[in-house]
Every structure is written in C-alpha cells, then in structure tokens.
Amino acid sequence: MYSSANTIWVLVAAALVFFMQAGFAMVETGFTRAKNAGNIIMKNLMDFSLGTPIYWLLGFGIMFAGSGSLIGGFDPMVKGDYSGILPNGVPLMAFLIFQTVFCATAATIVSGAMAERTKFSAYCIYSMVISAVIYPVSGHWIWGGGWLAQLGFHDFAGSTAVHMVGGVASLIGAKILGPRIGKYDKNGKPKAIQGHSLTLGALGVFILWFCWFGFNGGSTVSATGDDTLIAMGKIFVTTNLAAAVASITVMCFTWIRYKKPDVSMTLNGSLAGLVAITAGCDLVTPFGAAVIGIIAGFAVVLGIEFIDKVLKIDDPVGAVGVHGVNGALGTLMVGLFAEEGGLFYGGGFHLLGVQAIGVLAVIGWVAVTITITFFVIKKTIGLRVSREEEMDGLDVHEHGLVSAYADFMPVVDSVSDVFKVPAAAAVEASIPVTRLNHSSDHKPGTKITKVEIIAKQNKFEALKQAMNAIGVTGMTVTNVLGCGIQKGATEYYRGVPLDMNLLPKVQVEIVVSKVPVDLVIQEARKALYTGNIGDGKIFVYDVENVVKVRTGEVGYDALQDEE
Predict the structure, then answer these.
(1) Domains of the chain
(2) Cα separation of 551 and 563, whole Å?
C-alpha cells in the first residue's frame, strides 16, 4: 500500500538533492579561475549525467539487491524485488531516484579538489567508477543492511556514506595529481590563487544550504505519523543551527587569525557545519547541533590550512577539509552527542567505537579503490593536462571555448558578415576635413603634456572639481586595480598571504597645453592628499602630437574648445 504523502516527500527531497549539483557547480566555478569555468560546469553536468545510468545499471543493485555483509547483489536496470528494503509506502522508482541523486553528490565532490588541471576524459572515467562501485559498496555496508549496519553504525543522511567518500577520493586524487602550476614556490611555501567570483561561490553555498533541508530532512523517507513529523522538524532545526553556528565560528576565528573575516573560508564553514551535522541530525539536540557547528568551524579552517601548508596538497575549493575532515568528524560526534547511546548522555563508549570502526573502514575502502582507479587512468590515458593546457586554461583546450564568459570573448564583426556591408570609401571622401584657423590662440611650439593620476576611488569627485576649477575639462577615467611598492596591505586568501594585493583605484588621464602642468599637479595633490599610504601617484609624459579626428586639427589646436 503506497502512501501519497511519503512518496511526494521523497520525490521533492530528491529534486532538492539534485539541485545541489547546481550549488556545487557554482562553488567550484567561483573558487577557481575564469579560464576553467566552462570545464567545471561541464564536469558537474556530466558526473550526474554519467552517474545516473551507471547507478541504474550497476550501483543500485550492488547497494540494495541483497543483504550480504559486504555487497548487495547484481541487478542491471533494477528489475529485482526490493520490497524488503523499501521505506514504508514508497514505490521502488521513487526510492531509486532518491538514491541516485545521493550517489551523484558523492561523485561531484571530487571535481572541486582536482579542478583546473585534470583531463576531462579522465574525470568522466573515475566519476563513473565512483558511481558504479566505490560509493555503492560502502553504501551497502551503511544503508543496505551490510556489516556496519548490523553493528549499529549510524549515519542518518550521509556524513560518511556520501561526504567522506567524496572527501577521501578528493584527497587521494589531489595528491596523485599534484598542485597547480605556481601554487607552491621553490621552498614549498603555498601561494594564494584566488577564485574569480566570490559571488558565484556564495550563490552556490546558499543553494546547497537550501537543498540540504531535502538532503537531511528527506532521509526520513516518510512524511506521515506524528513521530515522523516531529523528527522532521528537529532535523530541520539541527541542520540549520549547525550550519549557522559553524559560519559564525569561522568568521570569528579567521577575523582573529587573519585580522579580517575571510569570506571564502566562512562560506566553507557553512558547508562544514552542514556536512558535520548530516550523520546525527536526527539524534542530537539543538544544543548538540550548535556545539557540532562550533567544532566543525574550527576543524574546517585548521583542516584546510593543514592540507595546504603541511601536506602540500592543492585543493582549490577546500573539498577535503569540508567533506573529508568534517564528514569523519561529524560521524564520530554521533557517538558523543546522540541523546540515545552518546557518550555525553551516559551511553558509554560503544556507539563511539562503532562509529570509529565505520569511519576507518570506509576510509580504507575508498583510499584503496580510488588509488587503483587513478593509477590505471594515469598509466593509460593520463590524468593531468599538459603544462601548456593548464596555463592557457582548460576551457579552450578541452572544450574549444575562448571563454565561458561572453564579455571576455574576442569581438566579432557579425554585422559585416550578415549584411555584407560594402567596403568603406576613403576617409577623405567620407569625412571632409575642415582645418579651422585658430590663429588668435595658436602658439607654435607650445608643449603638450599628458598627466596621468592614480588615486583612490573615493577621491575622484574632489579631483574632478579641482581640475574643472583651473580650466581642465577633458579627461579619460578608468577603474583599475593596482598597488605601489608597498604591495598593498597584507591580506589573506583562505589563510595564505597574498604576494601582491591589488587594490581598486581610479586612473585619470589628462592632456594639457594651455593650463600650466605645474598648476595641474599642484591642484591634484591638494585634492588627493590625506597623508596616508595609498594617496596615489602622478605621472607626467611628453606628448609628441595630438590629432582631432573630426576636424583633422593637430597639436595645440586639437586641444582647444570651439566657440
């Protein structure tokens, strides 16, 4: 007898978990460089697209088709009888899609840690191996009635089964692959390689946070009965609380540690809290969830720093720290904070011991199988792109994209191609040049000078008014990034000092002939001066000639106003 409420809730939760693919895509794209954005989007699309049929053909059967201690069974295309393991009132196909999206989540985690230097073909292969074998086998141990389930191992929504599997695979993959070019100097000191869009990264985190309510809440696989509804409300509260507290913890910790609250690390903190609470969101109290969030916040910062600075493993998005470290930590904390059986609630060490056994067993399984997978790929088709491809970006070499962003693409004269505009006539015939006589103002041999001013953005209005007051009305203004010999203020990106911090500035170019150059410089200094480092610089250049396009006037005359 099927339940409409249970089935609808499972399907809605499956849709939410599927949308986590978009969240991961945005996080990974934002935390890496623009030249690889198309490649990362393609990987996140294909790990789900490839994983879906692979899990249908192999993975689901290995995970659920049987109650063996180590493996389920072999049931291509899911044609067997699963009535013994189906949640109450939920049909097989609904349960299949729910489990499929969880499998895809484990596979996509690896993409971020190995971003910007992995062959696309290699990624497709190891992603399929994860979905076909690696995830389903350990998933059977935990959720399919395998030996860990028989021991009493508790992982409600997948801190270990999903996130730690992806985190361990990420660690092994990033280690075998090696760091990105320029990530470490000759002494092994890490250098910051900034992502190109924190906006995309933040959007991804908010998407993931939202979808996590389906990830954890949907794992009830039921929406009927008072007990289930009460449990679902508790799961939502503990999930949200852990994420929020972890975010606050990372913000405060990085504020103290780096002298500024680190944006990207705080975004990782939100995800760390979500990963850590996933295993025990149904068993811990709100207070326990808050404490787990605090622990996750410290763990993700120290974990990412340890992986980057000590192990010298290049993980562009912090996948190992978020999913690997906090997946394991969150699973162990079930043994401490579970209201029933937790050490801090009088349950003794039994549950904690079982949780530790499960974590170690899954780490061992994933580490061995993914190492073999990467080794075979490396020795056959190759795992890493060439140096030239990495320097140019994977978008152009792997996918033929000049850029994933249209604004950065070369301008093409599409109008001429479409409408076949005839060749233009000579300039002299199209635009008659009138040479106006400004004999009253003309001063042969008058020197023409270009004054280039680099200043703080908030000082531009004052500079503009000062120039207007002395008769300088023509200027070219550009927003730029730069720094002087001080290399900008010392800042950190994900705990690594930036070698050179480029600050937003405004560049004003003025060409003068009538107004004395010394007066321009003097008034500019008055407008810009604060006495602090960063007031700017003024550069003075000789100009050989000036030509006014419309009239053809040259030199001094080209710079004068018309009456």
Answers:
(1) 4-399 (1.10.3430.10), 449-542 (3.30.70.120)
(2) 14
Q: How many residues does the chain have?
A: 563
470: phi then psi, degrees, rounded to nearest 5: -105, 10
Round to whole Å and give the CA distance between 170 and 230: 36
Q: How many CB atoms lie within 10 A of CB 521?
A: 14
Mean pLDDT of successive 10-residue segments in the chain (563 residues)? 94 97 96 95 96 97 94 94 92 97 94 96 97 97 96 97 97 96 92 92 98 96 94 97 98 95 96 98 97 98 96 96 98 96 95 98 98 97 95 92 68 44 47 42 68 89 90 88 66 67 83 90 91 86 88 83 63
Q: pTM for the whole thing?
A: 0.80
Amino acid at 454: I
Task: Give the DSSP H/E element, type plus range, for residue 287.
Answer: helix 286-305
The residues, any chain, with a CB within 8 Å of residue 171's CB and separated by 6 or more, are 113, 307, 313, 315, 320, 324
Nearest alpha carbon to residue 47 among 139, 96, 143, 118 = 118
End-to-end CA distance of the chain: 91
3-state secondary structure of 184: strand
